[in-house]
Specification:
With 493 residues, the chain is of the alpha/beta class. The chain has helices at residues 49-68, 71-87, 89-100, 104-124, 163-175, 189-200, 218-227, 240-249, 275-287, 304-319, 339-354, 390-393, 409-417, 432-441, 474-479; strands spanning 15-17, 20-22, 29-33, 40-45, 131-133, 141-148, 151-155, 178-182, 208-210, 231-237, 256-260, 265-269, 297-303, 358-361, 380-383, 400-406, 421-422, 424-428, 446-449, 464-465, 468-469, 482-489. It has a seven-stranded mixed beta sheet with strand order 14-15-16-13-12-18-19, with helices on both faces. Strands 9-8-7-10-11-21 form a six-stranded mixed beta sheet, with helices on both faces. Strand 10 (231-237), helix 8 and strand 11 (256-260) form a beta-alpha-beta unit. It comes from Polaromonas jejuensis. This is NAD-dependent succinate-semialdehyde dehydrogenase. Keywords: Oxidoreductase. InterPro entries: Ald_DH/histidinol_DH, Ald_DH_C, Ald_DH_CS_CYS, Ald_DH_CS_GLU, Ald_DH_N, Aldehyde_DH_dom, Aldehyde_DH_Superfamily.
Length: 493
Amino acid sequence: MPLTLSQTDLLRQQNFINHQWQEAQSGAWLPVSDPATGLDFAHVPDSGAADALAAVDAAHAAFPAWRARSARERAQFLKRWHALIMANQQDLGRLISREQGKPLAEGVGEVAYAASYVEWFAEEATRTYGDMIPEPARGRKLMVVKEPVGVVAAITPWNFPAAMIARKIAPALAAGCTVVAKPAEDTPLTSLALVLLAQQAGLPPGVLNMVTASREKTPEVVDVWLADARVRKITFTGSTPVGKHLARESAGTLKKLSLELGGNAPFIVFDDADIDAAVNGLMAAKFRNGGQTCVCPNRVFVQGAVHDAFVEKLRARVGALKVGPASAPDSQIGPMINARAVEKIERHVADAVAKGARIAVGGKRLEGAAYASPNYYAPTVLTGAHSGMACSLEETFGPVVPVTRFGSEAEVIAAANDTPFGLAAYFYSSNIARVWRMADALESGIVGINEGALAAEVAPFGGIKESGYGREGSRYGLDDYMHTKYLCQGQLA
């Protein structure tokens, strides 16, 4: 199907550097395909080092003037950008669904979620307060002020192409930073459309720059930013191995880092939980975006007394999910992003079955006339999962729920924390004493307590251990784009 947009100019297929839309200096192009069909429908520049350097040149030149603008002026720009995003919500949702594959309702919902970050940081821009410190001796004044870090390089993933860009760029601009950005190679079009709206909102030249690149060319682009001392911060969402590489390679210039990396979220259901609420929470947390989110429950632990009842309710709900392309109005689960994603899911399911797990529902790639590409996988529930399976050790990133039966609270705490990751965790219980014990014991940056929907622009988002550091969203997210400066004035007595 052709991509139909009310505002046709939202389909941008060039880099945006120093306020100009331009091709890669090499002239190379990268195709953009629809996961639902596997067919190419657009192309963007396959940028290299020269384009990355030009973006830094523009951002560095623009920084002094953008930093000098008042917080209120920067906030007014962000408010205009927010209004334009919401005015184009349906078109942006169509772009997301076409290049990423999620159902249209989810795509449109993601636009509103992305816009919420722009609005939040527009409001927070005027609240970057400092402090007055009681002086230790007469005749001195001690003050703390906040300043923007400088040029920020933002590298975003494919699973939320609008939300991840907004969650990084909005606080950077609010703080007074300028930005160079690279969206994921699978989903560049939504990000470019958001940049167009920023341009229309009146963003000055050089303040925001975006280059696109293939998987093969991405290291060439990012290495320029890592080596350039003018880039003072890297913000990245993606895999832990890539995050570790960025941390190592940025050490030479001691850049500030925000790394939101891999997860292996536990979802724990105690025998005193509201089972229907727990099933609802798991469905919301696990199957949003087809299980392709970093905070999706990856390991589900259910206490013995309620295990069978929980699994039966879950099996019925999962088996009823409608899988199909975004163009089908009743689709609840779209295709996976590409063939590599489906191959990983198949490998995890096959490994689990070989090691004793049983398939309660699903467990196969979907084929036939209704599925125009090989990227569809049936929503799946596995029972009898254990810690030796690949699906317990690695992030599956797909619509697969491995369920493990457990006995005691101490047992499940040990199992939940037995991972190098610590991004999100969930548990359901009606015992208030247990709620506080679990909240304290779980090694995770985010904990859902009787709740499956965690993310909000007002709350800090980020992990611990090998899930990274730094926070996005909330007032803490703005702090990650600022330095703290201490001023001491003497000779006042």
